[in-house]
Amino acid sequence: MVRRLLGVQSFDLSQSQRENIFHTICKILDKTCSLIMHSGSCCNCCSTRLVSKLNLTIVPHPKPYKLKWLNEQGEMMDNQQVKVPFSIRTYKDEVNCDIVRMEVGHILLERPWKFDRKIISNGLTNEIYPHPSWH
Question: 21-130: which CATH number, 1.20.1250.20, 3.40.50.300, 2.40.70.10, 1.10.540.10?
Answer without folding.
Answer: 2.40.70.10
